[in-house]
Amino acid sequence: MARLHIRDPGARRALIACAAALLCAWPVAARASTAPPVPKGAPSAALEECVTVGTQAERSATFAGEMTTVAGSARMEMRIEVTERTPGQLAYHTLVAPGLGVWRTAAPGVRVYRYLKQVTNLAGPAFYRAVVRYRWLAAHGRVVNSATLRTKRCEQPSTETPGASTPAGGSATGALSPAPASPLS
Is 34 left (phi over 0), alpha (psi -120 to 50) or beta? Predict the structure, then answer.
């Protein structure tokens, strides 16, 4: 094996520093290249649109979930729940409104099931996100697999204008209105 003779102490220190940096970076690069890939057909949940301008009635959020068939499943079902957190709250809570939190079943034979849910009349200031639940069922209704994902949040700014007040006995939050959902399969 050949030996490298470096007489300049500054060059020797620079070479040692470069070698040390390469040795430190090598495990990080090895871990990055061996990271498990996202499984093909893994379910996904997304905030598709967040409308924050206009009056409260014009504000909306559109959430989407997508799933594909898995081995042993005959049916796929998805449920989108909308959660809200106001600035004074530490945790999100599930909102109750017609059409939310209902299991939706894909049509027979569908291999990729995508479901969109839009909610309107969002109050502010508040954060909204969806919890999307997935389940794959065997022919006789037994659950073969299940998953739960959360979307990114939709931040709604305050709807109050300077000098505006809430009607006596009223609420500043308003009523959540789910728009008709559209299953895309």
Answer: alpha
C-alpha neighbours within 13 Å on the C-beta side of residue 17 = 6
Q: pTM here?
A: 0.68
Please give the Cα distance from 61 to 84 (Å, whole number). Answer: 12
Positive or negative: CA dihedral 175, 180, 184, 185: positive
CA distance 100 to 97: 6
> Do the Cβ atoms of 153 and 132 come closer than 8 Å?
no
Residue 87 CA from chain centroid, whole number: 20
- Measure CA of the first residue to CA of the last residue in the chain; give whole Å: 65
For 142-167, give one letter per residue: b (16+ CB within 10 A) or e: eebbebebebebbebeebeeeeeeee
Beta-bridge partner residues of 50: 61
Please write the tens of the pLDDT for every residue from 65-85: 999 999 999 999 999 999 999
C-alpha 43/C-alpha 31 separation (Å) is 25
What are the Cα distances from residue 88, in Å, to 60, 125, 127, 138, 167?
Answer: 21, 10, 11, 43, 21
Query: What does the pLDDT read at residue 89?
Result: 94
Digit-coded pLDDT (tens) for 92-150: 999 998 889 999 999 989 999 999 999 999 999 999 999 999 999 999 999 999 999 99
Q: Does the pLDDT of residue 184 top 70, yes or no?
A: no
